[in-house]
C-alpha cells in the first residue's frame, strides 16, 4: 500500500547517491528502462501523484537519479536515468550498469527492480542487456510493459507473448500497465507489498 510519497533528492552520480542512500536503512526499489519508456509516469501512476516525478514527451528528461520516500521511510523508489537516448549506446549502458551495480554492491538495499519496456515495440538490444545484467547479478526483477492503453486487449495479449519470448521470461511474469488508464496499478501495488514484506523478513 502506498500512503504517502515525497521527493527526497536528485543525485548526479554514484558517489552522491551512495552517500544519500547510506542515510536510510529502508529497502530500495528501482524503476529502470530506456528513455521515454514511461518510468516517471509509472512512478506517478503507482503513487497516485500526478506530478511527483517529472515527465516529458522529449526523451532523456530524467538525467539524474531521483529518490522518493514512500510511506515515511518504509521504502525508497528510485527513478533511474533512461538509457538508449545518447548516440553511443554501448558506453551508455556501461555507465548505467555501473551506476546500478554500484547501488547493488554498495548498499545492497536494492530489493527489486521494475524493468520497463514499451508494450508496442520489440525489446531493444539495450533492454535485453538490462535483463541479462539483472539475471547475472542475481537481482530480482519484474518486467513491466508500459503504455498498454495504446493497444487493444487482443493486441496486448499478443505483445505480452512477444515480449516474453524476446526476453526469455514467462508471460505471467510481465505486468501490463498504463499511466493513462491505471491498468496494472493494483497488480504493481500488490507486488510491492510482497517485495517489502520479504525485505522485512515477514
Ligand atoms: N499513452 C501513454 N503515454 C504514456 C504512458 N506512460 C508515459 N507516457 C508518455 O510517454 C512520454 C514519456 O514518459 P516519461 O514518464 O517522461 O518517460 P521516462 O521513461 O521517465 O523518460 P526519461 O526520463 O526521458 O528517461 C510522455 O509523453 C508520457 O506522457 C502510458 O502509460 N500511456
Ligand atoms: Mg523520467
What's the β-strand tally?
7
CATH superfamily, by name, is P-loop containing nucleotide triphosphate hydrolases
Number of domains: 1
Name of the CATH architecture: 3-Layer(aba) Sandwich
Ligand set: guanosine-5'-triphosphate, magnesium ion
Radius of gyration: 16 Å
The CATH top-level class label: Alpha Beta
The helix/strand class is: alpha/beta
Oligomeric assembly: single chain
Distance between the termini: 16 Å
Short recap of the structure:
By secondary structure, this protein is an alpha/beta fold.
Structural account:
The chain is an alpha/beta fold and 202 residues long. It has one domain: Rossmann fold, CATH 3.40.50. Helices cover 39% and strands 21% of the residues. The chain has six helices and seven strands. The protein has a seven-stranded mixed β-sheet, sandwiched between helices. Helix 1 packs parallel to helix 3. The longest helix is centred in the middle third of the chain and has 19 residues. Guanosine-5'-triphosphate binds next to helix 2.
Amino acid at each position: 500500500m502506498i500512503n504517502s510519497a515525497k521527493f527526497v533528492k536528485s543525485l548526479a552520480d554514484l558517489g552522491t547517491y551512495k552517500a544519500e542512500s547510506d542515510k536510510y536503512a529502508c529497502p530500495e526499489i528501482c524503476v529502470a528502462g530506456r528513455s521515454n519508456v514511461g518510468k516517471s509516469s509509472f512512478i506517478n501512476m503507482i503513487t497516485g501523484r500526478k506530478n511527483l516525478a517529472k515527465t516529458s514527451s522529449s526523451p532523456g528528461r530524467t538525467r539524474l537519479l531521483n529518490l522518493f520516500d514512500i510511506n515515511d521511510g518504509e521504502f525508497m523508489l528510485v527513478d533511474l536515468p533512461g538509457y538508449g537516448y545518447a548516440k553511443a549506446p554501448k558506453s551508455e549502458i556501461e555507465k548505467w550498469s555501473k551506476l546500478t551495480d554500484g547501488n547493488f554492491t554498495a548498499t545492497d538495499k536494492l530489493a527489486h527492480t521494475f524493468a520497463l519496456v514499451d508494450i508496442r515495440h520489440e525489446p531493444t538490444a539495450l533492454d535485453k542487456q538490462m535483463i541479462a545484467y539483472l539475471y547475472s547479478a542475481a537481482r530480482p526483477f519484474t518486467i513491466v510493459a508500459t503504455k498498454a492503453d495504446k493497444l487493444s486487449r487482443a493486441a496486448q495479449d499478443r505483445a505480452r507473448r512477444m515480449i516474453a519470448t524476446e526476453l526469455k521470461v514467462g508471460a505471467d511474469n510481465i505486468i501490463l500497465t498504463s499511466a493513462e488508464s491505471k491498468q496494472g496499478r493494483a497488480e504493481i501495488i500488490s507486488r510491492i507489498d510482497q517485495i517489502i514484506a520479504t525485505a522485512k523478513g515477514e
